[in-house]
Write the structure tokens for this entry.
Amino acid sequence: MATKVFLHDAASDIDPSAVETEKLADLTQGAAAATKATNTALGPTAGIQATDGAGGAPLTWFTGPLQAMTISRTITFNICGFESAAAANAGPQVKVERCDGAGIVISTVVNSEYGTEFATPAESANSWTATPTATTLADGDRLKITLLGNDAGGVMAAGATFSIVYDGATGATGDTYVQFGDGVFLLASQVKAGRFETQAFTLAAAGTQELFPPLASTQVQVMSMLMVVSLATALPAIKDNDDALLLGPMAIPNTGIVPIACGDRETPLFTAPPGKGIKIVTTGAGVIGGYITIQRVST
């Protein structure tokens, strides 16, 4: 199950560096794009960290504390931006690091360049993938995401700028994110009652994928679901984290997009027991994927 981590203009809840400006990264899509310019320098460079406006402090983004997991699958970058002139020869680079709960860097998960320079003068999305160094997170660890500009299309020239655009809506200006093939989850203590959460999933048959972790004093209400199947013999089911059956197994009638249940975000399709999380389990053959949206309510 892949999970997108979005970069926001709001401040992080931690401030481990007196030099950098720390901003928030989380699983919620943005709504109003922010644009930050960074001065270029004569290359070749090892990467110039994006700044909080030209000449400003270096920018970086921190997630909240995460559940223990291993990151090893493909990471997808979608970085929106532009350069002030074609001669700038600046392209996007992303560094993801494992940090402890206070934001102190433990190791590098991935450090990847796109290799193609930003468009000019209009913003465009720059998408590519990279294979991370297999990294195991402990409960409470965070991810630090840093955006940089590096030589692309030639040696970087001084006297120009490259700009990062982020915190935008889906498919719109600033739809910047880092997508983890393994999925990442906030610690249960970081998940707040009353908010909607959406998770995408991709799962081979005869497999299990945790979707939403349990959280004391709350109840998971499933508001909408959509599944895409590649083979009609897949039999998905939804269970709580104690393996109690909540929905299914569901016989898929054909290959393609199957609206198993599309809710209106007002009436729950079904509800997990208090204090329980949910997961998807499949038997049979084929691959399934899709989205599930939930709301947590206080109990």
Remarks:
- The domain at 3-180 is CATH 2.60.120.260 (Jelly Rolls).
